[in-house]
Write a structure and sequence with these properties.
The complex is a heterodimer.
Chain A lengths: L3 E12 L2 E13 L4 E6 L5 H8 L7 E6 L2 E2 L5 H10 L1 E4 L11 H11 L7 H11 L15 H13 L5 E5 L7 H18 L2 E5 L3 H7 L2 E6 L2 E7 L2
Parallel strand pairs in A: 3-8, 3-9, 6-7, 7-8
Antiparallel strand pairs in A: 1-2, 1-4, 4-5, 9-10
Helix pairs in contact in A: 3-4, 3-5, 4-5, 5-6
Chain B lengths: L2 H14 L1 H38 L5 E5 L5 H4 L2 H6 L8 H9 L3 E6 L2 E8 L2 E9 L15 E2 L9 E5 H7 L1 E3 L12 E3 L8 E9 L16 E14 L13 E3 L1 H5 L6 H8 L11 E6 L5 H10 L3 E3 L5 H40 L1 H9 L4 H42 L14 H18 L1 H8 L3 H5 L3
Parallel strand pairs in B: 4-11, 6-10, 7-8
Antiparallel strand pairs in B: 1-12, 1-13, 2-12, 3-4, 3-9, 5-10, 6-11, 9-10
Classes of the chains: A alpha/beta, B alpha+beta.
The structure holds adenosine-5'-triphosphate and magnesium ion (MG).
């Protein structure tokens, strides 16, 4: 059974009299442990789809079934639970809180969850260590390089041990070498820890190289799904 | 999320923009400071004036006289002196009035005219009989110096400061009266224990000739009584009633003074009976000034004329209420201003931090958690602002009291404050500050909790 089943998912924006079809009749099955990439031109609906999967946009038609529940129909409480424990999000612009140190940023999702306070420090250190950032724990985001900031963001996304990582152009602001590092990290977590990864990118080559399944979007529609053997 | 975490997140937010936090706290400080000082001053004025009035006996004392002694009814002394139909006030009336439950003490008002000499100086004045039991009540219960006499038979006397002033003395360290060349300053203990001579005039019946011409001199004998000063009574210019005569004698001692009573003299001259059993007036003391009206009407129903200044107390209380309302209104406006200040500060800070809030929601913070962070944040502002507000209010009302004290302090009980900033007011102010800031943050917190992570995370 699929981990996430996307059925007939559509989203339209009404801008005055004209309708923008951000997503049209999307159907995807995402299996546990899969690395899925979503590619497409700018404005094709990639971010829209990822935000729906992340439970931060529920204003859409169709079904997104996780664990038997349609996340589009969840209430506030269920949604925050889903955002906390099921998915971890990574953004192109990192979205770290600038006045919290690296380790405090990683601790933040642990504060909102039931994670015991006494183990919080250890957990955050361990995550940063795994990202090779143990020397950067007390740095503020402004004191980190782009690659380091994104690794802090990954650590934060992993804090509550989510099943799924949702990454929206995680390497969009990084140079090739750093992008490669981040990709390797994501791959490592996918392979070693069986974390499902859904990644938006405009870099088709990387997408085909790292993912099991690559979905090509155009004008909100899937025009091609490539599955690696 | 544990309380510790909420507090740490809130503190984190507060220390983010220190200047804004400072302004928010300042707003609460000024609001609470104004409100608490207004309340403190209101309470202070009320207590002060009420205490002054009560301690000066105006509001617990009644004067009972017969209908014929009602000056207003007759308009001239002649009618008063010759009136026929006296309703007698005698010991049986005293005991009837004593039976009224709200009454604590009743005694006949005996005033005698005498020449009094002290330290070589003499004045002409009335002396008044006040029973020793009055020592339980203000103003005699807290004398300025010395003590009130213990028994009605003592050869003692208590003086008011005004009486001393008439002799030309001011007590050392006393600012109630202006100093001048003719006035001497004496230490209190040089007055207490000193003797005073009361020289009374007695009508000499033996030498009185009913047939002599009406312009003939009335035959008189002088009689001297020596008494010891035991105390000096606290007194303010507002004093009336009891203190209007500033020389007080134990009842028996006063009774034993042989003095002419003008009315008796006229009665004798005109061949009318002199009734020594009857009193001209009674002094009635009620325990609580609130009972004054009831007691007054009860005695009036018995057919006497009752006079009391205390009737006006209700009006005075109304004035206090108006003062309190005015002060509270000023304080409330200050509080409203600080509430709007807090709402504004919170909304601004939420607007500035909408992205951060969006991130927190995207990583799993619930609406409740976001709201709690802001509630705690504002209650910290309220609590700290409340503490500073109390300090500010205390200093402000203390200062105002000092200034007011300089202006009108002499009118009231010396050394009195015009503010009453007690710990209850302080605690209530801090709690109130915390509660109002939480109330002020209801709307901003809800707004924060409703922030859509989608919009907050969008690239600018
Ligand atoms: N709030 C909005 N209101 C109206 N239209 C919107 C809104 N958000 C997105 N859209 C439209 O929806 C479509 C899909 O947008 P989306 O952000 O998903 O594209 P994308 O594939 O992520 O593009 P990019 O690669 O540039 O990030 C676009 O045509 C966009 O203009
Ligand atoms: Mg996008």
């Amino acid at each position: 059974m699929a981990l996430i089943k996307i059925e007939k998912l559509s989203k339209t924006y009404n801008k005055g009299s004209n309708k923008i079809f951000a997503l049209r009749n999307i159907n995807i099955d995402i299996e546990e442990g899969e690395f899925v990439s979503i590619v497409g031109k700018s404005g094709s609906g990639k971010s829209t789809l990822l935000n729906i999967l992340g439970g931060i946009d529920t204003n859409a038609e169709g079904n997104v079934i996780y664990n038997g529940d349609n996340i589009l129909e969840m209430n506030e409480k269920q949604l925050s639970h889903y955002r906390k424990y099921t998915v971890g999000m990574i953004f192109q612009s990192f979205n770290l809180i600038p006045w919290r140190t690296a380790i405090d940023n990683v601790k933040l999702p642990l504060m909102f969850s039931e994670f015991p306070r006494s183990l919080r420090e250890t957990r955050a250190c361990e995550l940063l260590y795994n990202m090779g950032l143990n020397k950067r724990a007390l740095h503020y985001p402004s004191e980190l390089s782009g690659g380091e900031a994104q690794r802090v963001a990954i650590a934060r996304a992993l804090a509550n041990k989510p099943k799924i990582i949702l990454a929206d152009e995680p390497t969009g602001n990084l140079d090739t070498a750093t992008s490669f590092e981040i990709m390797s990290l994501l791959q490592m977590f996918n392979q070693k820890h069986n974390i499902t990864i859904i990644m938006v990118t405009h870099d088709k080559d990387t997408a085909y190289r790292v993912s099991h399944k690559t979905v090509l979007l155009s004008d909100g529609e899937i025009i091609k799904t490539t599955i690696k053997e | 999320m544990k309380p510790y975490d909420i507090i740490s997140l809130s503190l984190n937010n507060l220390t983010q923009n220190k200047f804004r936090t400072f302004l928010a706290i300042l707003g609460v400080t000024i609001g609470i400071g104004s409100l608490s000082s207004m309340i403190s001053i209101g309470q202070g004025i009320t207590n002060n004036i009420t205490n002054t009035l009560i301690s000066n006996d105006i509001f617990t004392g009644l004067n009972v006289s017969t209908k014929d002694d009602d000056y207003s009814k007759y308009g001239n002394l002649g009618n008063y002196l010759y009136s026929e139909e006296s309703l007698p006030i005698n010991d049986s009336i005293v005991s009837v009035i004593e039976q009224i439950p709200q009454v604590t003490t009743v005694f006949p008002e005996i005033i005698k005219f005498a020449e009094i000499s002290f330290n070589g100086k003499s004045i002409k004045s009335n002396v008044k009989s006040v029973p020793a039991i009055m020592g339980k009540f203000k103003p005699f219960s807290n004398m300025a110096h010395g003590h009130f006499y213990k028994s009605d038979k003592e050869n003692s006397v208590v003086l008011s400061k005004a009486a001393l002033y008439k002799f030309g003395y001011i007590i050392e360290g006393d600012n109630d009266f202006g100093k001048s060349k003719n006035i001497k300053v004496l230490p209190a203990d040089s007055i207490i224990g000193k003797d005073i001579h009361i020289i009374t005039k007695i009508f000499d019946y033996n030498k009185y000739n009913p047939n002599s011409a009406s312009n003939a001199e009335i035959p008189i004998i002088h009689d001297t009584t020596t008494l010891t000063i035991t105390g000096i009574v606290q007194q303010s210019p507002l004093s009336a009633g009891l203190l209007s005569v500033g020389i007080f004698l134990p009842s028996n001692t006063c009774e034993n003074l042989h003095a002419i009573d003008l009315k008796d003299v006229f009665n004798i001259i005109n061949d009318k009976p002199v009734n020594y059993e009857n009193y001209k007036s009674l002094y009635v003391k009620v325990l609580n000034y609130k009972d004054l009206k009831i007691v007054k009407s009860k005695i009036e129903d018995m057919g006497f004329v009752v006079f009391s200044v205390g009737d006006k107390l209700e009006d005075i209380e109304k004035i206090f209420n108006i003062i309190d309302i005015l002060l509270a209104a000023i304080g409330t406006i200050a509080i409203l201003v600080s509430i709007f200040g807090i709402i504004n500060t919170m909304l601004m800070s939420i607007y500035e931090r909408r992205k951060e809030i969006g991130i927190m929601k995207a990583i799993g913070a619930t609406k409740r958690q976001i709201k709690l962070i802001f509630y705690i944040e504002s209650s910290i502002i309220g609590f700290i602002g409340g503490i500073f507000g109390v300090l500010f209010g205390c200093v402000a009302s203390g200062g105002a009291s000092a200034i007011a004290g300089e202006q009108i302090g002499n009118l009231l009980t010396p050394g009195s404050n015009f503010f009453d900033f007690n710990w209850k007011l302080a605690v209530a102010s801090i709690i109130f500050a915390t509660i109002i800031t939480i109330i002020a943050s209801i709307y901003p917190s809800r707004k924060a909790a409703k922030i859509d992570p989608l919009i907050a995370l969008r690239r600018e």
